[in-house]
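INFO batch 0412 | record 1 of 1 | parsing
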Amino acid sequence: MSARVHGLLAEFAEAEHLLAAVRRVREEGYFASCVEAYSPYPVEGLDEALDARHHWVPFWMLLGAIGGGTFTYWLEWYSAVVNYPINVGGRPTFSWPAFIPPAVEMTILWAVLLGVGAVLFGARLPRVHHPLFESHEFERATSDRFFLLVRSDDPRFDPQATQRFLKTLSPLSVVEVAE
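INFO prediction complete | emitting tokens
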């Protein structure tokens, strides 16, 4: 029984070659969500070439802020006015200025919690083991090599056709990464 293929990994010596390869792969029709690039340092223009969008994190942070602040303010109002009203020196039970600081704090807390959750979910973390860690070639990803991974979950992925296409991009090597 053979191991399931995670994808194909192409190795490049220069950042410019990686950037050109990513652009070609995207032009060929591979989905941006199924193409990954690895480099030892940031490469100018790689995010745009990969079509990397980070639009979900602000949405979830806004949702957390609105939900956390609103719920906290409502909870304070409910507990002070409806559930357990206490007359302290003739003051009103709905003393809204006292409710603001805790509501603001909870707004910040829930925005941060949902933002961190969105980042972790978007990066598919925590992940104890990644199939790339088994690839001997990938060990140089943090020192002097640039890698392009086309994952097998792309609908356009065909092991032989994708390997032939990747070899046209002039990589140093193209290896199969098993699950």
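INFO post-check: The first strand starts at residue 5 and ends at 12.
INFO record closed
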